[in-house]
Hints:
Structural class: alpha+beta
Shape: globular
Helix content: 10-25%
Amino acid sequence: MKITSQSGEVITLEEAIKYVSLFQKQNPNAINSYFIGIEKLQELLKQNNCIGMRIYPGINNQTEQSNLVLIGVDKNGDDISEGVILEELITCPPLCPNESSLLNRK
């Protein structure tokens, strides 16, 4: 499989619900979702030679909470490590959507 600006697949809401529900069932204490603002996302994606992003799981060593690290990727499939790297996404919990088809309300 090759990394391109078209990598990834669009899925239906029903498929998304199945994926997320199974994860939540198997990981009841895990973070349910992560939010990032559009301006920060655009800042990452507008870097020179950026064709997409890679998402790494991580743990913030100050809070000891899991979070994600987002980094731009160039046409060779390499991380753009001399550019914008994002972290400290907003997690659910505690800041969850009021309504979501994907959120398993216990």
